[in-house]
Amino acid sequence: MIETTVTIIGCGDAFASGGQLHTCFYIQAPHATLLLDCGATAYYGIKKQGINLNDIDAIVISHFHGDHFGGVPFLLLEEAVRNREKPLTIISPPTGKDRIKKLLKQLYPGSEVLNKLNLLFKTYIPDGVLQADHFEITAFPVAHTPNTLPHGLRIGIAGKIIGFSGDTAWTPMLIELARDADLFICECNYFQSEINGHMNYKTLLNYDDQLLYKQLLLTHFGEEMIQYRDQVNHPYAYDGLKIAL
């Protein structure tokens, strides 16, 4: 049986601290392949990992900051140029299609990319589960910049649960996101500084015993976290890391 794997395409913060690419996780399962976020610089990492774009069935977007969805126009443009026929699903908070359309208009005016691809746009279901082909997503609002429509996600795929905090400060929603997750990917932008909309490691330690994950992976490190990385006692992401679930 083919195992389910998660490859870290990019795990950096908005400023690509430490030279890490923007957020993007490549999830491969027996019957579905997903991108979880696709930040502005992630497309380079997708190419570096040798990923065949046609293998991607869906792109899942946690929120509308450029380091989490700014790479989508580049992927769509290439697939349009290559005359992709396979359907591609884009799952996001509301307004996803409109925001991506506006990005494409600014970056590649006149390209008409959306008209050249077989795209299906879906939005998260409030207080419900979004069923897709061979996977499902439960989305939870989290504590980040409100107008980016921030969500944490639980993805059920091939009998595994992948939890993702998205960008967020501490919120009790993380307890549900992490519960029984085979992998819980949690942003941890800072070591001890308390900055609105982001987690710090000291806070995470205070609540760690409530996060009943099976495996934790910290991500989205800023310069402060990189500086204190030798004091971090939990696994953390780096570009190119591959995890089998």
From TrEMBL:
Gene Ontology MF, one: 3'-tRNA processing endoribonuclease activity
InterPro entries: Metallo-B-lactamas, RibonucZ/Hydroxyglut_hydro
CDD domains: metallo-hydrolase-like_MBL-fold (cd07740)
Location of the Metallo-beta-lactamase domain: 21-216
Any one Pfam family match given in the protein's UniProt record, by short name: Anti-Pycsar_Apyc1
PANTHER family recorded: RIBONUCLEASE Z, ZINC PHOSPHODIESTERASE ELAC PROTEIN 1
Name used for this protein in its record: Ribonuclease BN, tRNA processing enzyme
